[in-house]
Amino acid sequence: xxxxxxxxxxxxxxxxxxxxxxxxxxxxxxxxxxxxxxxxxxxxxxxxxxxxxxxxxxxxxxxxxxxxxxxxxxxxxxxxxxxxxxxxxxxxxxxxxxxxxxxxxxxxxxxxxxxxxxxxxxxxxxxxxxxxxxxxxxxxxxxxxxxxxxxxxxxxxxxxxxxxxxxxxxxxxxxxxxxxxxxxxxxxxxxxxxxxxxxxxxxxxxxxxxxxxxxxxxxxxxxxxxxxxxxxxxxxxxxxxxxxxxxxxxxxxxxxxxxxxxxxxxxxxxxxxxxxxxxxxxxxxxxxxxxxxxxxxxxxxx
Length: 302
Known about the structure:
mainly beta, about 35% strand, Immunoglobulin-like, 14 strands
């Protein structure tokens, strides 16, 4: 498909006979491939195998995440033919998918003697397109807490002396409510205070004098990159699985602010539901490098 661009007169004058030479060479101005356009909705979700990890007791966990190619749409795919594992349909995977890339979302425990060549396959069908992720014990895909921290965190080597430990979480048990009545949920987290707060050097008063780098021009709002993980202990809530018939949840508040070097955090929130059914909600305690999930099942009656 051809498209035509209109150039400013001044530019045409500057080009001289360049335009005529391009036409003589039959150079066609084409639109880019449609696959390169960003889409708010209608795209599929790609499941990802993040790697496998041998735990201290010898058993193995396989880590999975996903990439929702939509910038706005949050598909709900109930456990079943369109969202299943080959070993057993339900192995703890999400059924609600937030936009863009999400790393190390959940883990699947397998025996210590799992066959090195055996695959564990997650199949996901969204918007008519089926995608799979195959987990297996390829040596190059072995990960540890250090690898996880370098992927989840803002970059750089993880703490080693002392090493960082994931937060521990306690909270409300499973709940039952009726439609229109919010549920109050409380979650507490404790942490080792690592990573420790960064010590910033005092900025010289004449930092902007000659020789200093000029300030960068701000990006337009639509081009601002998504910020990386924030260091500091925080708790946030998310929808992990909605009812098969559909439903949404609103959290008020949804998260706490990260506290750098924090060792305790608590979040009391009210969850409001749009439809009856069974919801799985997930609270995530994060220190900015490692995360610990805490799941609550809420049954909403009509």
